[in-house]
Design brief:
Elements lengths: L24 E7 L3 H13 L5 E5 L7 H4 L11 H4 L15 H14 L6 E3 L1 E9 L4 E8 L5 E11 L4 E6 L14 E2 L14 E5 L3 H11 L4 E6 L5 E4 L4 H10 L1 H25 L1 H15 L6 H4 L12 E4 L2 H7 L3 E5 L2 E4 L3 E4 L4 E3 L2 E4 L3 E3 L6 E4 L2 E2 L7 E2 L3 E2 L5 E3 L8 H22 L3 E4 L8 E3 L6 H6 L5 E3 L10 H10 L7 E5 L3 E2 L2
Helix pairs in contact: 1-11, 5-10, 6-7, 7-8, 11-13
Amino acid sequence: MSAEPPAVEPPAAEPPAAEPPAAEHLDVLVVGAGISGIGAARYLKVMAPGKSFAVLEAREASGGTWDLFRYPGIRSDSDLHTFGYAFKPWRDEQSIADAPRILAYLRETVAENGLEPHIRYRHKVLGASWSGERASWTVEVERTGTGERFTLTAGWIFCAGGYYRYDEGFTPDFRGRERFAGPVVHPQDWPADLEYAGRRVAVIGSGATAVTLVPAMAAEAAHVTMVQRTPTYVMPVPRKDALANALKRYLGEERGHALTRRKNIAQQRLVWSLCRRYPKAARRLIRRANVRRLPPGYPVDEHFNPPYDPWDQRLCAAPDGDLFRAVREGRASVVTGRIATFTERGLLLESGRELEADLIVTATGLNVQALGGLRLTVDGEPVRLSGTVAYKGMMLSGVPNLAYAIGYTNSSWTLKIDLLCEHFCRLLAYMDAHGHDTCRPEPADPDMPTRPFLDFGAGYVRRAVASLPRQGDRAPWLTSTSYRDDVRLLRAAGVAGPELRFTTSRSGPAT
């Protein structure tokens, strides 16, 4: 009798697939936790308390520029009564302040306003795609420590990362660089253990970084030589503002700061206006200030008389004349000429002169990068930034629900950031009040003449101008460089306008 075949159990049913977790949604995603991003977060918390927001920072710390750069002497070029926030008085006695003091001020702002829980470190925003149907951005994020990627969604993106690359400075291709026996360092990548005491240092460059580095390094180095292709305007300015400190002492910090801020805003505008309107007179005044602080018979016109007018490029500040003092005391020198090649012992100029050095610093500038390199698409179409036009200096034509923070180049950066953040929060409130979820700038005249967004002669701007947005020839497409004009445009005027198109995704166009 044959045995019955064993019964075959039916396969167990597969458990139902788990639903993927929904992506986190934020009302506003702020990119960058530097001076602009911290300011944006504070304004959102105070002026838009009902909005959910987060600040994503690719690095492991807040502070942006003031945490990233570690080279000797790093400081502001602008006074901190205007470079600081309007809502937080600058209490330090230094008006032209060094980086540690600025960083402490920024982190104090974070702590006082309870912003730390909103900041997510080591979160790099890679790209974002806009869906008009959903009226939201889908944002791709990478955790920089692990490489893990994920997405979240946001109603708005506020780009607050400035306009230069944080991971790489600009260094030209110098012939023979590999021949030099000593270290070659860019200030953006300053090694913590770099020794320069008692060594001969050559600093290539003549901009703000070089003007800062030379006197700072000259305090310990055997000698520091600033090697420049063309001169830069350098103005001696007091490190401490005696009037500001007196006002705060006698009127209190709040009132004293407010009066100093108004004074310095007017002073900045006056200096810039005089330089632009009367360039020959401004050139003579700057030269006279230089002559007074340099040794008798010094070749001022060779080393401190640029071929361009004042404020065609940014003026450099020398707090208490520190650069001139280092030159006068023989601890530093300036050489003007083109570099032919690096040599084993230093630099050979086209003139045939060789400059011996133990260490070379390439203070040769920044790499400009709009929106932190963020890749954008709108309803499936890639956004070409050079094909967009700036609206009120804070949004881009054809790109919905995206704002960015770019400060002034002819006065303190943060003066404009305060105004932009205020205006942005008012715009959010306007949209809520009228039931809109989308706004998109669109020029009424598609043939409007345009010009570069950063209309500025600095080399780092010229190198990148073709990849940046444009600006128009009329408001609101003309990017203002005047605080007074921006107060009218961004604070006093309404947020709506005929060239800002509001819609509601649920019911189509609303205006």
